[in-house]
Amino acid sequence: MKELIVRQYIADAFTDTVFKGNPAAICLLQNWISDEMMQNIAKENRLSETAFTVKKDQDYELRWFTPGGEIDLCGHATLGTAYILFNFIEKDREDIVFHTMSGNLTIHRNGDIYEMDMPAYELKEIPVTDEMEKAVGIRPKEAWMGRDLVCVLDNEEDVVHAKIDQEAVLKLDGLLLHITAKGKSYDCVTRSFAPKLLVDEDPVCGSGHCHVIPLWAEKLGKGKLTAWQASERSGVLYCQMKGKRVILGGKAAIYSEGYIHIPEE
């Protein structure tokens, strides 16, 4: 059987050290392979996201797959892909543009911080329900809906110590669930859950912060915010509102570099 050999990296995003932040696999392709094959690779990797990228002229096309399916936007895998390209492929460049399902995403290298220009989700406040309380384990004081459901809690401790009912989360509207509160050392603190994508808790969620940063920027009256993802691995995001877009900045660290062997289609 003929094989296709694909170069694959794993990078930890929103951290400057391995075993922290959010790991993503990054596959550098010469040409696109089938959706089925990309989905199988994502299932085999069993990370929250596997990114696939193909160079197109001076830019790159980029897609993201979770073990449960393709997703329209992923911050940490975009950051991980940019980090790999800047450090191993495009060493002399300061900006890279990705063509994605969510439009063009420009990534700027600012020292050891990689700044992503991302779309901000429009949020609509919705009633807090008993089903949300059951899922989160504590009654939220506010609920907002974009692509994902955002539940605002009273304080940082409630977010950190929340006991999530994953089966109850599956029954809620929205693709992911984010619980968030005003932080102590950081402007906001968030945790993210995606059982519909076969990811119980996302270690650091970039697209989630495209929900919570517009919300906290409005609440706190600030254009620049530093955010903490309070997962077990944890991660820090340096954020700025820019009209209807969000600049998400973060560091990254390489964990592995290698090749995967897949059947040639």
Briefly summarize what is shown.
By secondary structure, the chain is α+β, with helices and mostly antiparallel strands. The protein has helices at 35-45, 75-89, 130-136, 156-160, 166-170, 206-220; strands at residues 3-13, 22-29, 50-56, 59-66, 69-71, 95-100, 103-110, 113-119, 124-126, 142-145, 149-152, 177-182, 188-194, 199-202, 224-229, 235-242, 245-250, 252-263. Keywords: Isomerase.
- The mean pLDDT is 96
How would you name the CATH homologous superfamily of the largest domain?
Diaminopimelate Epimerase, Chain A, domain 1
Largest sheet descriptor: 18 strands, mixed
- How large is the radius of gyration? 18 Å
Under CATH at level 1, the class of the largest domain stands as Alpha Beta
The assigned structural class equals alpha+beta
CATH architecture annotation name of the largest domain: Roll
Low-confidence stretches: none
First-to-last CA distance: 10 Å
- CATH names the topology of the largest domain as Diaminopimelate Epimerase, Chain A, domain 1
Number of domains: 2
- Proportion of residues in β-strands: 35-45%
Element-level helix/strand string: EEHEEEHEEEEHEEHHEEEHEEEE
What is the number of helices? 6
Shape: globular
* Helical residue percent band: 10-25%
Overall number of strands: 18
Keywords: Isomerase
Family: Belongs to the PhzF family.
Pfam families: PhzC-PhzF
Active site: 49
